[in-house]
């Protein structure tokens, strides 16, 4: 007779995870640089904590409140402000050797399942929810990734798409 799975207790889960927070800018950075809806930033911040990533956001009026509301863990999260010129920030990351993975449908996009885990400092770039990545930003992308869909929608929202790609880049799926 096979026994039913037993859920792990909160204490068991804590002991199985890293003993301390990750260092900022270690390895993986989620960059929703053209956010439309603040609610998605809070959700993405929670995913960043789950996978050990940092979140880079532009200094726009609605962003601080969205992050404060979305930080349901109530501890300091790894958030960095990129200023009001996201493209300059992205160019600096690229010049410093970061790999840039853009979440966008292009002729050369790789399927999410074929995207390898990040093995170097990686910026996952997310665009505007209606218009996607600006052409100037797309020119800085090392690889574009698409999330296959069989439903009737054309795309996922920024929080969902970013979360799926972050888990893949973190090597957790």
Order of helices and strands: HEHEHEHEEEHEH
Mean pLDDT: 86
- CATH fold assignment: Alpha/beta knot
- Helix content bin: 25-40%
Derived from helix and strand composition plus strand pairing, the structural class reads alpha/beta
Largest sheet geometry: 7 strands, parallel
Instruction: Indicate the proportion of strand residues.
Output: 15-25%
Number of helices: 6
Strands of the widest sheet, in order across it, are: 3-2-1-6-4-7-5
Low-pLDDT sequence parts: none
Structure summary, number of beta strands: 7
Taken together, the total number of domains comes to: 1
Q: Superfamily at the CATH H level? A: SPOUT methyltransferase, trefoil knot domain
**How does the overall form come out from the CA principal axes?**
globular
Instruction: Tell me the distance between the termini.
Output: 30 Å
The CATH class designation is Alpha Beta
Rg over alpha carbons: 17 Å
* CATH architectural designation: 3-Layer(aba) Sandwich
Task: Write structural notes for this entry.
This protein is an alpha/beta fold and 173 residues long. It has a single domain (23-169), classed as 3-Layer(aba) Sandwich (Alpha/beta knot), CATH 3.40.1280. It is built from 6 helices and 7 strands, in the order αβαβαβαβββαβα. The protein has helices spanning 10-16, 38-51, 63-70, 86-95, 135-138, 158-169, and strands at 28-32, 54-57, 79-81, 99-103, 110-111, 122-126, 143-146. The protein has a 7-stranded parallel β-sheet, with helices on both faces. α2 runs parallel beside α6. The longest helix has 14 residues, at 38-51. The mean pLDDT is 86.
């Amino acid at each position: 007779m096979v026994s039913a799975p037993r859920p792990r207790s909160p204490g068991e889960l804590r002991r199985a995870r890293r003993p301390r927070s990750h260092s900022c800018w270690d390895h993986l950075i989620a960059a929703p640089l053209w956010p439309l809806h603040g609610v998605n930033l809070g959700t993405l911040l929670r995913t960043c904590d789950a996978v050990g990533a940092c979140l880079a956001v532009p200094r726009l009026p609605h962003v601080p409140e969205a992050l404060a509301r979305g930080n349901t863990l109530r501890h300091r999260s790894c958030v960095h402000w990129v200023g009001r010129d996201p493209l300059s920030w992205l160019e600096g990351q690229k010049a410093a050797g970061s790999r840039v993975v853009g979440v966008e449908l292009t002729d050369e996009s790789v399927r999410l399942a074929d995207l390898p885990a990040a093995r170097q400092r990686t910026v996952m770039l997310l665009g505007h929810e209606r218009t996607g990545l600006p052409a100037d930003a797309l020119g800085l992308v090392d690889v574009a990734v698409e999330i296959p869909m069989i439903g009737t929608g054309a795309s996922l929202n920024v929080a969902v798409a970013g979360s799926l790609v972050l888990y893949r880049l973190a090597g957790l799926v």
